[in-house]
Design goal:
Length: 317
C-alpha cells in the first residue's frame, strides 16, 4: 500500500513538474516579447509575390522556402522574413517545372511563360483594418520569353529588406558542406530518429527543447503580440501530443544542404501516394505523423550545427 502511495506521489510530482516547466517557458517567452526592443516602429513583412503556371520550387537566401508540385495556376505570397536574419540584400531563385502534359511535349511551353509573374512585395503587420492598405509591390522581375520547350525555367534576382531586428539564427553554424556526406547523413538521421522516437512516446519536451531557438526567433520576425503566445504554445503542445504512437518511419529520403552550407534537412523522395492520400510528396520533410485513419502531417525541421557543438538545433521550419 505504501509503495502504491509512493508511486502515485512520484507520478504526481513528475506531471506537476512538467506542467510547471511548460507554463514557465510560455511565461518566459511572453515576457521576452514584452521586453524585446525593435529598432524602429516598423513591422514589415516581405514576401515573394508569385503567379506560377505549374509546379515550382522557390529558394530564398539559398534556403528552400517551398516546393509545390501541384499542377495548375498558383497565386501565392511566400514570406521572406523567416529566411533572412537582418537588413540587407539577398538573392532568390524560382524554378518552374513542366506539368505532366508539357513533359510529354518536350518541356515547358513558350505560351506557359506568358502567365509567369514574379515580384517582391511587403505590408505592415498592424493587426488592424488598415493592414491591407499598406500592401506594396516593391519590385517586379522581368520574364524572358522562350521560343521552344525547355525542361525547366528559372528566374533569379536580388531584393533588399529593411528590418527592425537582427537575429542570430544559423549565422554561427558550422559549414556542413565541408563534412563527409555519409557521416553527416548518419548524424542528421540520428537526430531525426531521436525526435521521432520521443514524439512517438508522447514526450513533447525534447522536441520543444531542440525547437526553442526557432520558436523564440519566429515570435520576433512574425511580430507576435505577447498576449497571443500562451494560446499559440498551448495549441502546439496539444497538437504534438497527438504524435503518440503515430510517427511514421523515417525512410525514402535524401539529405539536402541549404543556407550556403549551414543548414540541413532530410526530404522525402518522389512518391505519388502516402498513407491513403494521392500527392507528390517530393521535398516534404522526413519527419511525418500518420493520420488516425489516413493522411499525414509533416513536421518541417530545418537544422544547423552551432560552432563548437556536436548537437543539432532546429532553427526554422
Amino acid at each position: 500500500m505504501m509503495k502504491k502511495i509512493a508511486l502515485l506521489s512520484y507520478l504526481f510530482i513528475c506531471i506537476f513538474t512538467i506542467s510547471c516547466g511548460q507554463n514557465t517557458t510560455k511565461n518566459d517567452r511572453a515576457k521576452t516579447m514584452e521586453n524585446y526592443q525593435y529598432k524602429t516602429t516598423k513591422r514589415t513583412i516581405y514576401g515573394m509575390d508569385l503567379t506560377v503556371p505549374g509546379p515550382y520550387e522557390i529558394y530564398i537566401n539559398d534556403i528552400v522556402a517551398r516546393k509545390d508540385y501541384g499542377t495548375g495556376m498558383h497565386n501565392t505570397f511566400i514570406e521572406i522574413n523567416p529566411y533572412v536574419l537582418k537588413s540587407g540584400t539577398y538573392q532568390f531563385t524560382l524554378k518552374l517545372l513542366p506539368m505532366p502534359s508539357e513533359a510529354a511535349k518536350g518541356g515547358i511551353q513558350p505560351s506557359t511563360i506568358d502567365f509567369l509573374k514574379v515580384a517582391v512585395s511587403s505590408y505592415e503587420k498592424t493587426g488592424t483594418k488598415e493592414q491591407p492598405q499598406s500592401y506594396e509591390k516593391i519590385k517586379l522581375y522581368p520574364i524572358t520569353k522562350i521560343n521552344k520547350p525547355v525542361p525547366f525555367y528559372e528566374v533569379k534576382g536580388e531584393f533588399t529588406v529593411d528590418l527592425p531586428y537582427e537575429l542570430e539564427g544559423w549565422s554561427n553554424g558550422q559549414d556542413l558542406s565541408k563534412m563527409d556526406k555519409d557521416e553527416l547523413e548518419k548524424k542528421v538521421l540520428a537526430f531525426y530518429e531521436k525526435i521521432k522516437n520521443s514524439l512517438n512516446k508522447g514526450n513533447v519536451e525534447l522536441f520543444n527543447q531542440f525547437n526553442s531557438q526557432r520558436t523564440a526567433e519566429t515570435y520576433i520576425f512574425n511580430y507576435t503580440p505577447p498576449q497571443e503566445i500562451t494560446k499559440i504554445e498551448d495549441e502546439n503542445i496539444n497538437d504534438l501530443k497527438n504524435c503518440k504512437d503515430r510517427m511514421a518511419p523515417i525512410e525514402d529520403y535524401s539529405l539536402k544542404i541549404y543556407g550556403n552550407g549551414k543548414l540541413v534537412k532530410l526530404e522525402r523522395n518522389l512518391r505519388t501516394e502516402l498513407y491513403g492520400v494521392e500527392k507528390n510528396i517530393a521535398g516534404m520533410n522526413a519527419l511525418i505523423r500518420k493520420g488516425k485513419v489516413k493522411g499525414y502531417k509533416e513536421f518541417p525541421t530545418l537544422i544547423y550545427l552551432p560552432e563548437g557543438s556536436n548537437d543539432f538545433v532546429i532553427i526554422r521550419k
